[in-house]
Amino acid sequence: MEDERPGTLLRLRKKLNRFVSFPSLAFQMKTVSVALVVCLNIGVDPPDIIKVSPCARMECWIDPSSLAPQKALDTIGKNLQSQYALWQPRARYKLALDPTADEVKKLCSQCRKNAKSDRVLFHYNGHGVPKPTVNGELWFFNKSYTQYIPLSVYELESWLGVPSIYVLDCSGAGVVVNAFIERPDWALGSSSVSAKDCILLAACRATEMLPQSSGMPADVFTACLTTPIKMALRWFCSRSLLEFDPELIDKIPGSQNDRKTLLGELNWIFTAITDTIAWNVLPPDLFQRLFRQDLLVASLFRNFLLAERIMRSVNCSPACYPCLPLTHQHSMWFAWDMAAETCLSQLPSLVKDPNAEFQPSPFFTDQLTAFEVWLEHGSASKRPPEQLPIVLQAIVHVLLSQSHRFRALVLLGRFLDMGAWAVNLALSVGIFPYVLKLLLTTATELRQILLFIWAKILAHDKSCQVDLVKDGGHKYFIRFLDSPDVYAEQQAMAAFVLSVIIDGLPRGQIECFQSGLIDICLRHIVPARGEPLLMQWLCLCVGKIWDGFAKAQLLALHTNASSTLAQLLSEPQPEVRAAAAYALGTIIKAKSVNEEDSALDDDDEEARLRMEQDVMKTLLKVVNDGSPLVRAELAIALARLTVRHDQNLRFAAAAYLKPPSNPGIMALAGLNSNRTPTSSVNISGQFFFSGNARGAASAPASPEGFNFVENELINGLMRPRRLQMEESGVYVRCVAAAYSLVRDPCPWVAKLGHEVLRRIGVEAYVLQTGKTLKSGAKQATSAFPRSSSWFDSNIGSLTMPFRGASSSASPPSNLLSGSPMNMRRVPSLEFPSESDSGLGSSQVPASDDLKELPESVLYRWSCGHFARPLLETSHDEEETALIAREARERTALEGASKCRHSTVNVVTYQMATWDMNSEYGTKAVLLHPFLPLACTADDNETIRIWSHEDGSLLNDFHNHESHSDGSVRVWRDYLVKGEQQLATAWQAIQGHRPGARGINAVVEWQQSTGYLYASGDISSIMIWDVDAETLVLRLPSQPDTSVSAMAASLIHNGLFLAGCGNGSFMMFDVRKQDKQVFSQKAHFQRVAGIDFVQSGIDTTEVVSASQAGDIKIYDVRKLDLPVVSVEAHKGHLTSLAAHRYAPVLASGSSKQSIKVFSATSGDQLSMIRYHQSIFGKSIGPVSCLSFHPYSVLLAAGASTDSIVSIYAEDGAAASNSSTS
């Protein structure tokens, strides 16, 4: 049974840990009143007990027969009080020696009165009276001591009240415990008493007698509870093989509270061992209740474990309520015996020579070593380390246990780094108040490990913030953050801790604000350039300080904090840019949650509004940022702006939707003012403004453009204020940004854009269908119809004026610096569901609904960094990833080498074909480089993942609603049906021609640099760093045409080709100052395809094909004249594919043919016109071709049917037939 308990307990602990909320402070309840009732009647034995001779006589270590009866009784009472006072010196003690029932009633009532709502302890020594009755009655005396008077325990309970604890030291004490347990209800009078409010400790079971062995005291149970070290050592000596004088135990030098003395060392070890036993065998909630809520109760239950061990050795079983599992045979008791023996071996020499040096026990060192061994191999799936409470004891005393403290803290930090389950276990042990106390120390060697421990605790349990602020713990971390001699990672951790302290806690905001945290964070932002984690958390920290705190917001505005934060909006890390946008957004006052905020006068309020406009000017630069995190923060900032600037935004929306008479307005809004709108917009017809409690029901545009009058409510008075043209332009740009966000390719951001428009009061109606605008994620990108209105004809240019510094034409000097193998790549974003985002539908919002602002997920998402393991990564995961990566690299190298040395003859063998059963033609097809998979996309933006080994469909999902909108979406986990997730999405092509119905986007990915090249119906080529999610370059293309095809070099970083609609192609090298290195008019019609061909190890060629059907191959070293020219098709060429390593290329025609050519000579190798497996049916008009990167496999799709085929060399057909 003992062997089964640990596994069962482990499962129980895991189950309960999900529900038990551990208090932050260890001892939250006090036992302030103690009633000591001693019924000895010395000289008269009770009638139901026959004592043997010799028998146990000692009471509180006093032999009653050695003194006069009354003197002995008084001495025993005083000793009992002093023994309890060691565990709770501040309690009020009341003695009742041989009392009557009335005296007990008076005593209990007085104790409850003194204790109020705190706990009362009732100690009952009934060695001089009969055993309790079967009804649970205790015996007392009459006034003349001629009779025993029974007193029901229920009456006793009614006088003591709750909470209370009963210590019953008498024979048959278990009867009282049974009476409590078997009670039908816990009702006393009109008040209800919970079972958790009463605790009982009984010396034995209902049918047992107290031990009478002369080697033990008569009150052995009380001795174990109040003098555990003395009792434990005496019992140990009686069983030990060592020759040891028990009388020396009374001469143990030192104090129980002095850990540097022998007695203190023994008490320290005993506390650690009993805590460890209890923590390992008790459920978490019971451990918290008995060992972490009340100092005296915790001490009594630790000592109760000793009583169980000692008294069970003489066939007596202590009982208690709540019931505890058996602990008398726990393995940790052997550790106590060894520690006791080690300490006692020094006792004779220490007694003989008081100046002799005491040698501490190796107990803690050994246990910490055992814990360290567990850390090397432990995990959440294994049994928790039983040494965890011992680690706590090594930390407990800040000044007195320095020998073990640092090592214990380091091991604790390693344990907490293992995850939330480890933090939960540590809190269940009661680690919090002691690491809180350590913040008072000035020891510099503890700063880093204490910071790490607190970061781990707060990453998983935010509730500790209240106690941290209460005890001034935030000042410790502010000093750490402002220290000049710490690493940036540690400063970031300090900023994280402070942000959690502030998060949602107004008092934390006030304390940190008064401690100058805003100034400290802003001072460290600029020097932190180059340390993204520190920059990110400095921004999040200041954002948390002034979010909803008007005083802090005003300080930020007056100190021009926005200019400091604006510098971070062009940082290469999207997390830093998003954090800066978050901090800027929280400067805008939306609501006040802090009672310290005072009313502002009119001038301050007007100045504040102007400064908030300046903040929005800064934030509008990120409207086209490549990271959805950043764009989401802009949308949330716009939502905050609608709270106090709603009327201005309504006027701006009206003017934005109606062509203004003043051309200067369009320039302010960033729109093309040189173009005449095709038609005017009837605001009342297509758009309307919904009224709500915060503003007027309608907002007509001012006749003079945007110099309209705003009725401003200040201090209860409506005061008119005429907005200047510049101010009006800011609001118009905000409205334009909101409409841009509505079209965002990320559904989460688009939903936020809808929320901004909803809060402004704008509702869109589609005139053609009469349907209202939907706010769902799937409809977000297509809700606004294309039309010839002024609004629609201008919306295409909205993206241009909002480009920030990151989209500058001058690139960074180190565009391609750093190893691309170490790139972070695209961060995975878990977009919140509609229910989580708090965004409603597009119906007219109620005033109460508008009070709830959309919340940012950035902070919660960023906190995940510190919740993950930081000290050590999983070696198994690293090794697995490394093995997989090496296998892929080996496959790629072998495949490339094989393709280089291959001689391709005929590629006609149709090795795989499948019908997508779609009414839409195939738009693109790609072959997975390492798996036998093909990815197809049709004209309806449906993506399908196929296995070309068995033709099975693994997954299919919809990419997006609107077609050719110039956006890029990155998906992950796409191989499993329904498990695909959108990792990131952004508008890769910006500044397209206004009113264009499609962009005809052309994109190319370069693996070695992590760059995405994008163009289309625009006069430029945009180069995106996908890792940084930012625009690094915008290169001008030919102004009179658009890019129709692109290709990036696999060998030369930053080298790419662009084919144009006028038949020319250009070569760019982003590493050079003059990015465009060559331009050639190669064809007379549109370039349908272009690519690099590796014809040799040191030879790179360019192949280009036009819609007219001609294919030309150029040597990259001499691009003036083609090396090979081929008339592949007589017009109607639709696609071109060139193998990167094998000397082969293929072209497809809308005339239902595919031709394969030699890339060296231009000779035609084969032609495909018919399917081999569908009764000789002709292939459809070819729309797309793609070669496998490391095998000679050609994938083809058609524009009129949904059949996709994969072709291989004819030798592969012979190989397959011979194998079969």
TrEMBL record:
Name recorded for this polypeptide: Raptor N-terminal CASPase-like domain-containing protein
Family to which the UniProt record says this protein belongs: Belongs to the WD repeat RAPTOR family.
Listed GO CC annotations: cytoplasm; TORC1 complex
GO MF, one example: protein-macromolecule adaptor activity
UniProt domain Raptor N-terminal CASPase-like: residue ranges: 28-181
Source organism of the structure: Selaginella moellendorffii (Spikemoss)
Chain intervals for the UniProt region annotation (Disordered): 826-848
Composition-biased stretches (Polar residues): 834-845
InterPro entries the UniProt entry points to: ARM-like, ARM-type_fold, HEAT, Raptor, Raptor_N, WD40/YVTN_repeat-like_dom_sf, WD40_repeat_dom_sf, WD40_rpt
